[in-house]
Structure formats: structure tokens, C-alpha cells
Amino acid sequence: MLADLGTYPFVRLDEARAGALARGIELIDFGMGEPREVTPEFIRRALAAAIEPVSTYPKAVGMPELRAAIARWIERRFGVVLDPDREVVPTLGSKEAIFHLAQVAGGDAVAVTTPGYPVAARGARFAGMDVLELALDPARGHLPDLGALDPARLDRLAVLWLNYPNNPTGATIGLDDLERAAALARRHDFVLACDEAYSELWFEGPPPASALQLADRTNVVVLNTLSKRSSMPGYRSGFMAGDPELIAALRRYRPNVGVAPQDFVQRASIAAWDDDAHVEEVRERYRAKRDALLPALQAAGFTSVGGPASFFLWLRTPGGEDEEACAMRLLESGIVCAPGSFFGAGGAGHVRFALVPTPEACARAAARLG
Ligand SMILES: Cc1ncc(COP(=O)(O)O)c(C=O)c1O
């Protein structure tokens, strides 16, 4: 299986970066979507204060106080009241949870959207399942056409993955489309898994919707994380919430794997979920970076075809240039971006900029583009 999967695309980007660095080029790195913001001080303090002389194993179901803090945030943000003991389970960031979900869902295939974050498909293949790719349609706001799924396959589907705000396109989804996907999941008895890692980063319009707002959450699970919202990617802290039956299955499965965040990380996470002021600051910082870089990219011939959310810019290359050639050309000026083809078939002719360098570095990149 491992040999079949090929190199994780970003490992290839790392090799190209290393080559450019060796040639003395100073790099501004918009390649990987890894936040490099300062974690707010009150969160770091909460972590330090929680370190005990004796360190025991964290429980797979997480601390009740953390589940309660997550439920409080969901109620504040989405107006939905969940039972923290039956409808929420903490995760070690969301990547492992995305990877593992295929292990607890019955069926023989997992549907993912393309271009997209590759982890759900990789998890499905490690679980021995087929991967069905659904193209995001740029003409429909980067939503997939669920009608394109063969009804015979739908009955044997384990999971349909949706990711909004979307990596790499920045698109958002409305509750109507989530409702249609959830109705399909109930009809064919598969899991609708909504990866909402970027739900707190939006720059126009109303705050992104969550599948937790659906009136009927049967067969629906939502994943979120502190990595982007609270600039805590290294802490590894997120959650899954939704259908109590699914959460019960995850509570049985997860002790086998050993993927609970450390207790001191859970304490820091409680502080993070309980505070919204720092999230507004994080959002404004990404907005400033977007405002600094996007006009310069447009002036350099790129066309923005992405949506209003996430910290990604999704752009068509100038004059239809091949995306890998374009990324290599920018690398020579010290600007690292990810070729769209890294995210699957629909990414040809596109590049993705992750707005993770500092605002000053974004301004320098804009000047270099000029
Ligand atoms: C769409 C999407 N989902 C999930 C993740 C994983 O985030 P984490 O494991 O830090 O929670 C990422 C990270 O880049 C992502 O882009």
C-alpha cells in the first residue's frame, strides 16, 4: 500500500525548495498550509500551568471539561446545543481523525472531492477501500455534483467527505447543499463527514455554515481543529462532533490507536475554545495578508478563481501556463507556492498560495511580483 501511494506531494516541494536555498535564493514560503502565527500567550500559559509532576496516559474520550468547552464553542458559534458526552470526541488535531474515519465506517469505498486535501483518500486506501473522486465544479462555486455518483456505488459507500471552507479553493458551502448531502447519506446509509478546519477564516459575507446546524444530524460527523483558528498546529488538538451513534463507535475505536491529545494540551485547548477575541485577531491578520498579496498576483497575470474563505488563494496561472512550470518559475524569484496538481486532477493550470508567511513577508513577496 505504502509503495503504491507514491511520495506525499509536499515532500517533492521540499526537495525543490532545498535546491533553491542551496543556490542562495531567499525564500518566502506560501507552499504548505502550516500556520506560523504566534500562539496567543494565554494559551501557552494554560499549557505550562497544566504540566503535572506525574504524567499519566490521556483518556481516548478526552477530559469532560474539554468536551464541555467544545460544546460551549459550538453553541456560541453555530447556535447548536450538543451533549458533550454523547456527541463530541476530542482528536489529535484533525489529520489523524480524517485518516482513521474509514476504519469505523462500513462500506467498500470513500468519496472525496478533487482538487482537495489528500488525507481522506489516503486513509481510505490504507483501510482497503476504493476512492471515488468527485470533481469540484468551478461554475457551481466549487461544489461537487453529487448526482454524478453511481447509485449502485452509493449503497456501498462508507464515507462522503466534504471540506468547506475548502482547501485549496477557499470556497464555502450553504446549508441547503449540506442538507442535500446529508439526505443522500441517510438514504444510502453512508457517513457524511464535513471537514471544517477553516470555518473561522472568512473575508466576505456571513460566517461559514456548519453541518452541525442541520436539523437532522443522523449519519453526519463534523471535524474541526485549533490548528488554524487558534494558531496551534503543533499542539495537535481538534474534535469530531455529530451523530451520537458514530461518536459511540469512535469512542470504541480510538483507544485502539492511541490518539488522544496530552492532558496539558487538552487544558490549553479548553482555554482556546473558550475565547473568541483572539480568533478575530487571527482572522484580521490573514485578511491583511490576503489584501497585500492578491492584487500583486492579479497584476502579475494570475486570475483569482477561489472563494472568500480559508487562508488560501486559488489562482489560474497566467496564460494557461503549466502549474508545475509556473511554481518553478516563481521559485527562482524566491516565492514558493504549491502547484494545483498536488491537490488532484482538478488542480491543473492552478497554483495555491497559503497565506502563512508574516504580513511583512507577504508585502515583500508582493513587491517581488511587481
Ligand atoms: C482541509 C484540511 N483539513 C484538515 C487539516 C489538518 O489539520 P490539523 O491536523 O492540524 O487539525 C488540514 C491541514 O492542512 C487541512 O487543510
UniProtKB/TrEMBL annotation:
One Gene Ontology molecular-function label: pyridoxal phosphate binding
Cofactors: pyridoxal 5'-phosphate
InterPro entries, A to Z: Aminotransferase_I/II_large, LL-DAP_aminotransferase, PyrdxlP-dep_Trfase, PyrdxlP-dep_Trfase_major, PyrdxlP-dep_Trfase_small
Domain Aminotransferase class I/classII large intervals: 26-369
Keywords: Aminotransferase, Transferase
Tree of life domain: Bacteria
UniProt keyword annotation of Transferase present: yes
Name under which the protein is recorded: Aminotransferase class I/II-fold pyridoxal phosphate-dependent enzyme
Species of the source: Baekduia soli
